[in-house]
Amino acid sequence: MPAARESLLDAAYTALARRPWSAVRMVDVAASAGVSRQTLYNEFGSKEGLARALVRREADAYLAGVDRALSGTAPPGGLTTTATLTGGTGPTGPGRTGGPALSGGTTPAGSPHPAGSPHPAGSPYLAGATGLTGPTASLSPPGPADPRDRLTAAAEWTTETARSNALVRAMLTGCWSERLPSPSLTRVPSSSAVPAQRRADGPLPSPTDFVALVRDRAVSALAGPRAGAGSEGYDPAELARACELTIRIALSCIAAPPAEGSVADLVRDALHSLLSGPSRTAAARSPR
C-alpha cells in the first residue's frame, strides 16, 4: 500500500511537529492518515518501525537533494528547500506542504545518539543505499556546471536542510533531542512482508556514513561521463579531497553557523586552490 504508507509517514511527521515523539500515539497517526490502526501496524509493525521508516525517508530525501545539487541543474545560489521544520507554520517536509513545522532549534541538541558509532566503510548501509525516493527541492532552471558551483550547491542544500529539518540535522550531527525518535542505527530483526519496511529495518546512516555517501556521490557526479567542462582534468585523489572537504565544511557550519558570510563563501574559498584548474598530475599526463 504505497499510498497509505506515505500518508501514514506524512501523518507521523505532522504529529512530530506538534508534540514530542514519546507523546505521538499510533491511533492518532492512523486516524490522521484516514486508515485503520491495523493498516498502520501492517505497514510498520510497531512505533519503532514507524520511527525507522520516517528517519529512512528523510535520509533518502536529503541524499536525493544532494544528487540534484551535484547534477548541475541548480544555480550557484543553491536549491530552494520545501522543508521548513524549525518552528512556526509552513511546509512540513520534503515534497510536502501545509501543517505545522517541526521544531529543531538552531544548534545541536541532546546527547550523542546511543548507537552513534560509525559504521565500517563496507557497512550494509553504504553498500545498499542506492535507491532514493521523494522530491526534496524546488529547482530553478539549469545553472553553471562548474564543479565548484555544484559542490557549493550541495553544501548549501546540506546546511539549509539541516536548519529546517530537525530529523536531518540529528542524522548529520548525531545529536538527537528528546523530542525526536532515536532509532538504533544498527539493523534490527525484521519479519515484515513490506519491502520498504525491511529496508527501513536495516542499518541507518551515521554522520560518518553521510560524509562518505556525499563524498562518493560528489566524486561520481564530477568525474563521470556527464561531469561537465573541466572536471575531467582533476586528479581523482584531489577531487575526492575536495568533495570530502565540502561536506565537512557544511557539517561544521551546521554545528557552528558562520558569524559572517555564508557557507558558499567558505566552500568557494576552500575549493579555490584545490579545484582552480587541472591538477599538476593531470597536466603531466597530457601530451605536449
Structural descriptors:
TetR/AcrR family transcriptional regulator, Homeodomain-like_sf, single chain, 2 strands, 52% helix, mainly alpha, 288 residues, DNA-binding
Report on this model:
- The chain has one domain.
- 52% of the residues lie in helices and 1% in strands.
- It is built from 12 helices and 2 strands, in the order ααααβαβααααααα.
- It has helices spanning 2-18, 26-33, 37-44, 47-70, 124-128, 147-164, 166-173, 195-200, 207-223, 236-255, 263-274, 280-285; strands at 80-81, 137-138.
- It has a two-stranded antiparallel ribbon.
- The longest helix is centred in the first third of the chain and has 24 residues, at 47-70.
- It is elongated and about 60 Å long.
- Residues 75-99, 103-144 and 278-288 have low confidence and may be disordered.
- Residues 183-194 have a biased composition (Polar residues).
- Residues 25-44 bind DNA.
- Residues 87-102 have a biased composition (Gly residues).
- Residues 69-149, 183-206 are annotated as: Disordered.
Strand order of the largest sheet: 1-2
Please identify the oligomeric state. Answer: single chain
Low-pLDDT runs of 5+ residues are: 75-99, 103-144, 278-288
C-alpha Rg (nearest Å)? 20 Å
- Which series of helices and strands comes N to C? HHHHEHEHHHHHHH
Share of residues in helices: 40-55%
Mean pLDDT equals 77
Supply the number of structural domains.
1
Quantity of strands, as a count = 2
Sheet-strand content, in percent, reads under 5%
Main sheet characteristics = 2 strands, antiparallel
Distance between the ends: 61 Å
Domain HTH tetR-type: 2-62
Keywords: DNA-binding
DNA-binding region: 25-44
Region (Disordered): 69-149, 183-206
